[in-house]
């Protein structure tokens, strides 16, 4: 269900990204996630995670956004969509 909500929001916003500010995009995502999960038993932390994932997919670098924000990550290696490795504190 979360995947359906995410895909719906991504397809809805993809053609109109240039008319919204990042703050407006975040507000739209929050609104869509809260209305789309109203009947689901999702905890607030899971809703926030979904909101952040969608925002990162639209306004950031998707799956690697968390690694980019982490100051301890010194290298990110991507070998396809399912193979992401990173170096943190000297360890891969």
Mean pLDDT: 87
Oligomer: single chain
Strand order of the largest sheet: 1-2
How many individual helices? 4
- Give the structural class: mainly alpha
Unreliable runs = none
Radius of gyration over C-alpha positions, nearest whole angstrom? 15 Å
Approximate helicity band: 40-55%
Q: How many structural domains in the coordinates?
A: 2
Please tell me about this protein's structure.
- A two-stranded antiparallel ribbon has the order 1-2.
- It folds into two domains: 2-60, no CATH class; 63-92, no CATH class.
- Helices cover 52% and strands 12% of the residues.
- The termini are far apart.
- A hairpin with a 5-residue loop joins strand 1 and strand 2 (84-88).
- The protein is globular.
- The protein has 92 residues and is mainly alpha-helical.
- The chain is built from four helices and two strands.
- The mean pLDDT is 87.
Summarize the structure.
With 92 residues, the chain is mainly α. It has helices at 2-13, 22-36, 44-59, 65-69; strands at 73-78, 84-88.
Sequence-ordered SSE layout with sheet pairings:
Elements: H1 2-13, H2 22-36, H3 44-59, H4 65-69, E1 73-78, E2 84-88
Antiparallel strand pairs: 1-2
Helix pairs in contact: 1-2, 1-3, 2-3
Question: How would you describe this structure in keywords?
Answer:
single chain; 92 residues; mainly alpha; 4 helices; globular
């Amino acid at each position: 269900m979360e995947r359906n909500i995410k895909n719906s929001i991504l397809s809805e916003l993809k053609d109109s990204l240039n008319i919204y500010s990042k703050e407006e995009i975040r507000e739209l995502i929050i609104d869509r996630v809260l209305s789309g999960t109203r009947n689901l038993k999702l905890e607030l932390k899971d809703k926030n995670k979904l909101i952040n994932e969608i925002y990162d997919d639209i306004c950031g670098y998707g799956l690697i956004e968390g690694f980019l924000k982490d100051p301890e990550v010194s290298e990110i290696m991507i070998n396809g969509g399912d193979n992401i490795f990173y170096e943190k504190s000297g360890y891969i």
